[in-house]
Write the structure tokens for this entry.
Amino acid sequence: MASYLIRRLFQSLFVLLALSLIIFFILKAAPGNIAQIMAGIGAKPEDIANLEERLGLHSPWPVQYWRFLSGFFTGDLRSAAFNEPLLDVMSRRLLASFELGLVAIVLSILFSVPAGILAAIRHNTLVDYGVTLFALAGISVPVFWIALLLMLVFGSWLRWLPISGRGMDVGGLSILTLDGWRHLVIPASSLAFIQMAMNTRLTRSCLLEVLQQDYITTAWSKGLRERTVILRHALRNAMIPVVTNIGLMAQMLFAGAILTETVTAWPGVGRLVYQAIIMRDEPLLFGLTLIIALFFQVTYLVVDLLYAYLNPVIVYD
Amino acid sequence: MAFPWASCLSQRRFTAASLLIVYEASIVVLLVLTLRFTGRAPPKSAWDTLGTFLILGSISLLVRLFVLFRAVRHRDSEPGAASHGRITLNRLMGDPKGVCAIGVLLVLCYLAVVAPLITGDPMVMVFSETLRPPSAEHLLGTDLYGRDLFSRIAHGARYTLGIGVTATVLNILLGTTLGMIAGFARGVTDAIIMRILEILNSIPFLMLAILIVAVFGSSIPMLIVVLSVFVLQPARIVRGQVLELREKDFVQATLALGATPARVLFRHILPNVLSTVLVVASIRVGQNILSLAGLSFLGMGIAPPTPSWGSMLQEGRAYIQGAPWLGIFPGAAIFITVLAFNLFGDSLRDALDPRLRGSA
């Protein structure tokens, strides 16, 4: 087990290092630089040169790379556009992303697991077809379109919900106030929609697979009630992949949220990524990429360990 | 199905080549018919020609893949026995999901091909007709610049289908090759390929895509490269299957007989992973179209004024309160197209391997 963890650690380190190199080269391969964007259109060449000097763009690439990488670990990496340390820029967005992601995950689990179970135990009935079709529609719909439609119906026509934003300072928590909740509804439900669909499909197929196994037949033939067979016997094994999938769903905190956060003006990490790319903020983007990649590596590890813990058949040497 | 054209199509006398000829001839016939009924001149702009070429080319590539699949399956089956391809096709045609999906996709392809003939110019701005609601004259209304929305959506289908399908074909070729090599060679080669996949998997695809497109510009070839090279899930799936297959007796026996690895891979392993690859391909088209729409929505995809569904939503977003059709129709177009590809993939998987029916 220890050797497995050490191997995983080295793999993750390698991935992070390689990724940082790739991102650095992509950033440097681009024509133009942030100094030109910050100076604005029609800026004097000497102003641009000054800015470049101040941002350290004249140093050779390896020096710049080392400055980025060491700055990332010591916390000295400063966003060029916000002119703040990376962690300060991140931390304010992180909270917003986190609560959006959390509400979306809870929402999607609340709907997807019962729907998946229902579809599986009513296999090949109208209920099953309905759930399957709904889930298929869920993975086919563009997330920003759902958000737009919700904004149109509930924000513009019915005027029940605010159309966008978070309705408060960037630092606060939305889930503590009613107004915050009202702002949360549209982004969270559009973000939850796709995850809901995927999780429904997963729950349904896992349960169907388990229901075909011999020990379930045994349980039926013992004359147990349906709810006992399904909830006590089948669901325990069927839920293993579903639980681990929830770990991967945490990735949507960052991943799926770029589009949702942009369209609903939710000040989270996803929108920050988009802004950093638009503004060509190289240090910020470099740091953001590494933090997101780190988060991904942690979720992968947690998911693998969780899987082994829930399913004793799997042993990592 | 009233007329058993599915089983007709898969009769032995319809060889691979004739299937292609029938397909390509039917497109020409459709074109001629449309020309006849609309009485309009064929398009002259270079983009229209390129668009038509892209769509036709990518669709024929898909058909060619299917034909290859049929041919490979045929060779090994006994004479007289129903071929795998025929059984698959019959199952596909007996499944309402599959029939619906194929129908929608055919209509979309047709719309994409004949768009310049049946609708007006998607670029022409008429400033006396801005933001008109849907009417007989403008089927889906007009946008901020008075451009006909139906025309823009129909032309958008050309880019969406062309880029989506082309990127998927490239993606599948690359992914399958990498996956087969990794699974078969194992050892160092496998480790290198898997590390590459891990690096790509370590940040959200959309983030990488936005970054690359923002840095290197968003031309159509660039979009195709981004959508095909940087998502390699097919490689992972294929690798898993090959790892399993290479331990099977028939593979080991062939190797023991002295067959070269290339021969084993292409004659014995490829036919066994093809059905999975086909299913993954049809689902990946939908995913690629979604990514493309997302990129365009963020202003990083196909650049305006070229009609693309994602950027139409972006343009209409600010006016959605007064002109809801600008927000509804382009999104519905994306949704219906992706849903059709996903339905097709689902149905294809059921048809290829009934044991997997309904699994995710």
Summary: The mean pLDDT of chain B is 79. The interface with chain A takes residues 195, 198-199, 201-207, 210-212, 214-216, 286, 290, 293-294, 297-298, 310, 313, 317, 320-321, 324, 327-328, 331, 334-335, 338-339, 341-343, 346, 358-360 of chain B (CB under 8 Å). The radius of gyration of chain B is 22 Å.
